[in-house]
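Input sequence (153 aa), recorded before submission:
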Amino acid sequence: MAVQGFYTLTEKIKSILEDQEWVNTVSYGDLFEVATEKHNIYPISHFMVNNISVEENLYRFNISLLCMDLIDQVKDTQEDYFAGNDNIHDIFNTQLMVATKLIEELRDNTEADGFILDGNPSMEAFKHRFQDDVAGWTVTFDVLVHKNYKAAC
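Predicted structure, token format:
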């Protein structure tokens, strides 16, 4: 018996992310399998299910989401030392909006849909990561899915 809530949850996350202005690509699974050398895929939102806990009447999905974009170095020196000579502050701002929108929509979800956001997600900023030199946010959160939830595949 397949856990239909897994399909529903991952499709819901994908749909919310794809509808956002500051997302060009949505991917799932092993981040290192994403062809990140293609710069036209950015900004990208990548999510993965870290683990699932089997509880009495539900599954607890622990999910990580990376919302990121390419760092663009500006050649001219700026006098604004707070913002620096790159677009990292812009990336932090836009990708925080992406992550927040996903969290808000999952939080507004009802148990009738078969799943619900549990607790308060945590966010951690990162910069100068991965081969493509990206910045953004890693968001970690739990979603509860009823074991007996059945949706059409």
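Checked by second reader. Residues 88-108 form the longest helix (21 residues).
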